[in-house]
Amino acid sequence: MDRRRFLAGTAVLxxxxxxxxxxxxxxxxxxxxxxxxxSVVTEGRVTLDLPPLxxxxxxxxxxxxxxxxxxxADHVKAIHVFNEKNPQPNVxxxxxxxxNGKATIGxxxxxxxxxxxxxxxxxxxxxxxxxxxxxxxxxxACLEEST
Length: 147
What we know:
Immunoglobulin-like; six-stranded mixed β-sheet; 9 strands; 40% strand
């Protein structure tokens, strides 16, 4: 198998599952439940920083910070980000440890429409903390016509 056929085959594997997911608030709630189970998610300790108005949904800057001493006894184990209208409700999950020093994750994401974004932090004591933000997207990602 040559490199070109391998890359073409893996591209198909990556693209095909995206169409099967549903883009609803219920799908986001179900994705969150898969992460937190029956645990209570409390608002607070998490800061979700992203612009409230996005001109182009293809590159949306996002920073999630969690107030934590990041010690062995008390640290953030994971940060999860969810959205309600993209084809996949689980945007990303990042695993952390006390050795990270700070519980901050920064990245860029794609948004297909105006929607709610939810960030959930899992701490070493098994508790979940959250923050959410509504984002207005004027030009949705993945919907632009190529030129």
